[in-house]
Amino acid sequence: MQALRDRIAANLTAFPRVAVETTGLRRAAVAIVLSPLDGQPTYLLTRRALTMRRGAGNYALPGGNFEPGEDAVAAAIRETAEELGVVVGREAALGLLDDFVTLGGHVVTPVVLWSSAPLTLKPDPAEVHEAWHASVDDLDHPESPRAEAHPDGGEPILRMFARGQWINPPTAAWLYQFREVGLHGRATRVNTVGQPSWTAQ
User: By the 8 A CB rule, do 187 and 181 touch?
Assistant: First the structure.
């Protein structure tokens, strides 16, 4: 696991990430939280609470809007603690991926966090319906990413395989970029990935 951590950290450090100007847009962060489970690398994946006003039932990474004075790392760490009861420090941050503009009007920064110790999940039912340790190995599923025509005629919708499901952007886009950049050191952009129109609701 240490070798994997070091490889991901080195790949993220070498990656020339793209930062997006935020004029008129809200800032948010999501966390790709890596930890071992039974000796295998996993990341934390959630399904949003079914009672939420926006994104109810969607597969998601822990995350949310910045609070005053926060940067992306602080927001990702706080949201992970609030949603899943998982507490890590800033030293857990291995790096950032590209800022991503969602249809909902957010500029989202994906933050890669690492825990050498196994994590116990205590989801907040107000925000999280279910939460899992998803296999990092599944990110290299031979059919991932799966591109499908956009029903509104936009850029193709890219889906990633996780826990036996094909999940949608924007979460799929962040996982794809993490796979390409973090795991394999391949400079890959996802800003043109199509997003289903319902993700703006």
Answer: yes
With residue 81 as reference, give the H or E element that holds it: helix 72-84
CB 20, CB 107: distance < 8 Å = yes
Sign (positive/negative) of CA torsion 88, 89, 90, 91? negative
Which CATH number belongs to the domain containing residue 115 in this structure?
Answer: 3.90.79.10
The whole-angstrom separation of Cα 68 and Cα 75 is 10
Quick one: CA dihedral 125, 126, 130, 133, positive or negative?
negative
* pLDDT score recorded for residue 65: 96
Whole domain around residue 90: which residue ranges?
2-200
Residue 21: what pLDDT? 86
pTM of the model: 0.96
* Confidence at residue 138, expressed as pLDDT on a 0 to 100 scale: 97
User: Token pair 């991932």 is at which residue?
Assistant: 144
